[in-house]
Structures are given as structure tokens and as C-alpha cells.
Design brief:
Blueprint (H helix, E strand, L loop, with lengths): L11 H8 L3 H9 L7 E2 L5 E2 L2 H15 L4 H9 L7 H13 L5 E5 H8 L5 H9 L3 E3 L4 E5 H10 L6 H30 L4 H44 L1
Antiparallel strand pairs: 1-2, 3-5, 4-5
Helix pairs in contact: 1-2, 3-5, 5-10
């Protein structure tokens, strides 16, 4: 899949290393149709891009949730064929939200393996500041696995750490407000139900609500960006 603006440049060895998988596993996913074929370059060398890496991350997350290979294949077949890396990351975020909070203590080497890349000291400091990891004794780190991929992705975003932390505060505050209002809404609907029924409804509704929130937020953000970029272009034209 090459719908992104960047040309695919990763060899299969580089792709596997970034994804924290073996080359054999990546090839296996390709033969099963879970991973789109690479772009064939000079000397018949296959090259992979961000969409391939994002799809591997999604597959890994689905496996972490206990899905079989057949179930993963059915899940991926239902996705639109033109999803880019950002869209795939959103789907992965939805899948990750199904799981309970997962905090593990890992070594620096394991942290880098989970992150899918080498991490310098500055990278580790930024992840600590974002609340993704924390020190845990001798050369150990407490890792929020649900936030790790997101935090690693933010390492390459051209924003200051202060701006990222401010954005996190905005998202947390608004997410809590939305969760509170939704819980109040549903509480009135299930007030007469047994506790077990309420628990079952909550487990069913969580991924649906998260998907709805992500979809509406994505559309709202795109509208804001169009308005912002359109206003910027108009300002340049009138200058």
C-alpha cells in the first residue's frame, strides 16, 4: 500500500526490525494477504513504507487481543483498501482500547524492542515526560503498553515537548468530560438492569464508543485544518 506521500524506502529486513518481528513473519503475513506487496525497485528489490509498518502494528495489536490469524484476516478484509498510515494507527488505537490498562516493567533492551526502534537518552526523557514510561529500579522502566506506540510516534512530530504536553492535557480533560456525560446518559438506560447485564453492556459498548469518538474527532480535526489552511492561504493572497 503506497497511499502516503512518502515513497516506500524500507527493505524487508528494515521493515521487520522496525516492527519488532522476524523477516520470516513479515513474509508469512505477505503470503497470507495480510500485508500488501512491496513496491519493486531497481534490481527487483522490494521496498516498504509507513503503511506497511502501520499495518504490521495493527496485526500485532490484534494478536495481543487474542485474535486468531483467521479472525485477523477477516478483520483486515473489512477495512477500506485505501487506508494510509494515520488511518491504520486510528484503527490500532481502537483495538488497543479494548484491553485493560497494561503496565509492565521491562529492561532498556526490551523497551526498545517494544518500541520498534532504538531510543536515545533524549527519547527516553521525552517518553518519561509524557507519562508513557517511568523509572523502575536498576535499568528498568515501567511501561504503559497502551501508550507506548503513541508516545514513540510523537517523538518524530515536529512540535515542542511543551506543546505535546499541553495537547495531552486538552485531550484528557475533554475525554473525561465526554466519558462522564456518556456514562450519565447510559446510566439512565440501564438503571433497572442487573449488575452483570450492565458489565456486559459496558464491554460491548466500549469499542463502539471509542470508534465513534475517533471517527468524529478525525472529521472535526480535518475540518479545522481545512479552515486553518484555507485562512492562511487567503492571508497570503491578500498580502
Amino acid at each position: 500500500m503506497t497511499t502516503g506521500t512518502e515513497e516506500p524506502t524500507l527493505t524487508i529486513d528494515e521493515l521487520a526490525a522496525r516492527a519488532g518481528m522476524t523477516v520470516r513473519t513479515v513474509r508469512f503475513y505477505g503470503t497470507k494477504g495480510l500485508l500488501p506487496p512491496p513496491v519493486i525497485g531497481p534490481r527487483r528489490v522490494g521496498h516498504y513504507g509507513r503503511e506497511h509498518l502501520a499495518r504490521l502494528a495493527l496485526i500485532d495489536e490484534l494478536q495481543q487481543q487474542g485474535m486468531t490469524l483467521a479472525a485477523i484476516e477477516r478483520y483486515l478484509q473489512q477495512l477500506p483498501p485505501d487506508l494510509d498510515a494515520h488511518d491504520l494507527a486510528l484503527h490500532r488505537a481502537v483495538v488497543a482500547s479494548w484491553a485493560p490498562d497494561a503496565i509492565e516493567t521491562v529492561t532498556r533492551a526490551e523497551l526498545e524492542r517494544r518500541a520498534g526502534r532504538a531510543l536515545g537518552d533524549d527519547d527516553v526523557e521525552r517518553l518519561v515526560a509524557m507519562g508513557v514510561i517511568g523509572a523502575a529500579g536498576d535499568d528498568g522502566y515501567r511501561v504503559d503498553l497502551g501508550l507506548l506506540r503513541l508516545g514513540v510516534g510523537l517523538l518524530d512530530v515536529p512540535l515542542s515537548q511543551e506543546a505535546i504536553l499541553a495537547a495531552r492535557t486538552v485531550l484528557v480533560e475533554h475525554s473525561r468530560a465526554a466519558a462522564h456525560e456518556l456514562s450519565q446518559l447510559f446510566r439512565g438506560e440501564v438503571s433497572e438492569r442487573a449488575a452483570q447485564d450492565v458489565k456486559s453492556l459496558s464491554a460491548y459498548m466500549q469499542p463502539v464508543i471509542v470508534q465513534a469518538l475517533l471517527t468524529t474527532f478525525q472529521r472535526s480535526l480535518r475540518a479545522e485544518l481545512r479552515e486553518w489552511l484555507g485562512g492562511t492561504a487567503a492571508e497570503r493572497g491578500s498580502a
